[in-house]
Amino acid sequence: MQSLSGMNTGNADIPNVPVAELTNVTKAGILEKKKPTGLRTMQKRWCVVKGNIFYYFDGKTSKKMNGAFRLTDCSFEEAPEMTKDDKKKELCFKLVNPTSTRTYEVSIF
Hints:
Layout: E1 2-3, E2 15-16, E3 27-34, E4 42-50, E5 53-57, E6 65-70, E7 75-78, E8 92-96, E9 103-108
Antiparallel strand pairs: 1-2, 3-4, 3-9, 4-5, 5-6, 7-8, 8-9
C-alpha cells in the first residue's frame, strides 16, 4: 500500500487502497462530485465510508483510489445552490475541511 500524494498533509497517512481491500464498510455507493477546477461539471464517483474515512474512486472495481479524507475533520453544509433542479436541491451538500483549501461539493445520485 502507498500513501496518498497530492492530498492535504492531514491525510498523508491514509493508505492508497483498491476498492476490493475495503471490507466491512459503513456505506458505499455512487455520488456526483463537483470537479475542483471551478467548472459546474459533476463527476460520478464510487464512494466508500469506512470508519471515519471517506474514500472515492472512478468506479466500483477501481484498483487506484482518487482520494480520501477524514470525516471527523469536516463539517456538513447543505448546498441547494449546486443545482437548478428543485427535486435535487435537498440532495446536494458540501463537506468542508477547515484545515484544507478543498471543499467537496457532492450530490446524491
